[in-house]
TrEMBL record:
Belongs to the UDP-glucose/GDP-mannose dehydrogenase family. Its EC number is 1.1.1.22. It catalyses: UDP-alpha-D-glucose + 2 NAD(+) + H2O = UDP-alpha-D-glucuronate + 2 NADH + 3 H(+). Residues 313-414 form the UDP-glucose/GDP-mannose dehydrogenase C-terminal domain. SMART domains: UDPG_MGDP_dh_C (SM00984). Keywords: NAD, Oxidoreductase. The lineage of its organism: Bacteria, Bacillati, Bacillota, Bacilli, Bacillales. This is UDP-glucose 6-dehydrogenase. InterPro entries: 6-PGluconate_DH-like_C_sf, NAD(P)-bd_dom_sf, UDP-Glc/GDP-Man, UDP-Glc/GDP-Man_DH_C, UDP-Glc/GDP-Man_DH_C_sf, UDP-Glc/GDP-Man_DH_dimer, UDP-Glc/GDP-Man_DH_N, UDPglc_DH_bac. GO terms for molecular function: UDP-glucose 6-dehydrogenase activity. Transmembrane segments: none annotated.
Length: 430
């Protein structure tokens, strides 16, 4: 079967390569011609472990090719996956401009029956609107079906997650379309949940919001643990042993970031508001996340007797390890607050680059951890890259002005760091 993937971001590229690996013929389409040129040459516009090798493999196998002409892509492929972005609009709602744009292209260039599958995260009823957008753009009423097939991969482990999903959710009103899309995943061993498009759309938001809730719950508890002198990591280890709770997404830290939890929580809250329903728990989840960096930065500031004129090393700026994605990264919020407090900031990340607007004489990025930490009065760990866990902390203490570690991800062994002579402060683990 020939598959067209519209939108060559994290989800589009990963999905395209998954289907190429499963033996399907895939065409990747994006309006960004520079991205398409780079992909055709085997280069990704973002960092994601393992994806580059699979990309090269399938350019060579001929299972994947890249184009920027929607007309050619839509005419030549019977199955279309929509993987364009759905960023937050100013009011928190999901901005569906790109989805609407591709729907209109599909409508205008459609030449025969198509199955249009939505992988982008879209609010409840978007699949229904999509039918209308496609129909309005058609010059001839070719038949088509719409399927909702939300994506659950995580950045940093996108490839693994795509090949080993916990479930595949398919929502459609057409049994034929649903069966065809299911058959694409035949070789993937995962439970299948077939439902309506609206339910599939809701499952995606409800899942992300629930994971965000787990994180904000432990982050809020970490504040109490900090005050009580109880270690939150031990508490969550004990909690996670209960199979009904489970150990995942209970790691306290400086808050969740990324392109999805923040935007999807806001979008779900917007949908609730539109329907006059108060999602008070989710409201609090967002509020706790928004204040977590400030809460801990204030505590750490007291330890240093102020950040003004202090030199602070920041390790890890991406929103999580193994990605260069800076969208809603808590590290950027921390850097901005440190700038406001007139600290000197020295930044390191194994892959991600500090955005231009944050660079200045007092905010510099370095390639080596050791150089970054030179003359620092404290270091703040913001994302748990293994480079930092494996760093030679005994040696690093010699380059620092003061041996103070603020571990925003509870990633280092506090006792070990104390033994090495550091003053160690984590999140809720005094
Ligand atoms: N990033 C992630 O880990 C996950 C993202 N999602 C959802 O998947 C969707 C896509 O997310 P990302 O891949 O992160 O987005 P992205 O922002 O990385 O990529 C979107 C791509 O769509 C392209 N595009 C925009 N308009 C287009 C058009 N008219 N025709 C063709 N291409 C067009 C853009 O140029 C861009 O390359 C979003 O709805 C997101 O919420 C779902 C699960 C995981
Ligand atoms: O819809 C999406 O885009 C995706 O959003 C998340 O994936 P992602 O944002 O890539 O990464 P996560 O591993 O979920 O981490 C998100 C944030 O939560 C933080 N986090 C995660 C886990 C935890 O225990 N504690 C914690 O603070 C991470 O540091 C990171 O900032 C979901 O995990 C995916 O299932 C979903 O498909």
């Amino acid at each position: 079967m020939n598959i067209l993937i519209m939108g060559m971001g994290y989800v589009g590229v990963t999905t395209g390569l998954l289907f190429a690996e499963l033996g399907w013929q895939v065409t990747g389409l994006d309006t960004d011609t520079i991205k398409i040129q780079a992909l055709s040459e085997g280069k990704l516009s973002f960092y994601e472990p393992g994806l580059d090798l699979l990309l090269k493999k399938h350019i060579e196998s001929g299972n994947i090719n890249f184009i920027s002409s929607p007309e050619k892509g839509i005419r030549e492929n019977a199955i279309i996956f929509i993987c364009v972005g759905t960023p937050s609009d100013k009011d928190g709602s999901a901005d569906l401009q790109a989805v609407r744009g591709v729907a209109q292209s599909i409508g205008s260039f459609m030449n025969e029956y198509k199955i249009i599958t939505v992988k982008s995260t879209v609010p409840i009823d978007t699949n229904r609107k999509l039918v209308q957008w496609v129909q309005e753009s058609q010059s001839y009423p070719h038949p088509f079906d719409v399927v909702s097939n939300p994506e659950f991969l995580r950045e940093g482990s996108a490839l693994y997650d795509s090949f080993h999903p916990d479930r595949i959710v398919i929502g459609s009103t057409s049994e034929h379309a649903s069966t065809v899309i299911q058959s694409l995943y035949d070789q993937i061993k995962a439970p299948l949940f077939v439902t309506t498009p609206r339910t599939a759309e809701m499952i995606k938001y409800a899942s992300n919001a629930f994971l965000a809730t787990k994180i904000s719950y432990v982050n809020e508890l970490s504040r109490l643990c900090e005050t009580l002198g109880v270690n939150i990591s031990d508490v969550t280890t004990g909690m996670g042993m209960d199979q009904r709770i489970g150990p995942q997404f209970l790691k306290a830290g400086i808050g969740y970031g990324g392109s999805c939890f923040p935007k999807d929580s806001m979008a779900l809250l917007y949908t609730a508001k539109e329907n006059q329903i108060d999602l008070s728990i989710l409201d609090k989840v967002v509020a706790v996340n928004n204040s977590q960096t400030t809460h801990f930065l204030n505590l750490w500031e007291q330890q240093l007797c102020g950040f003004r004129d202090k030199t602070i090393g920041i390790l890890g700026i991406s929103f999580k390890p193994n990605t260069d994605d800076l969208r809603e990264a808590p590290a950027l919020a921390i850097i901005q607050q440190l700038i406001d407090k007139q600290a000197n900031i020295r930044v390191h990340d194994p892959i991600a680059k500090l955005p231009e607007h944050l660079r200045s004489a007092s905010v510099q990025q370095f390639d080596a951890i050791e150089i970054t930490l030179q003359q620092c009065d404290a270091v703040i760990l913001c994302s748990e890259w293994k480079d930092y866990r494996e760093a030679n902390w005994q040696q690093l203490r010699t380059v620092m002005n003061k041996q103070v570690i603020f571990d925003g991800r509870n990633m280092l062994d506090g006792k070990e760091m104390t033994k090495l002579g550091y003053s160690y402060f984590g999140i809720g683990n005094r």
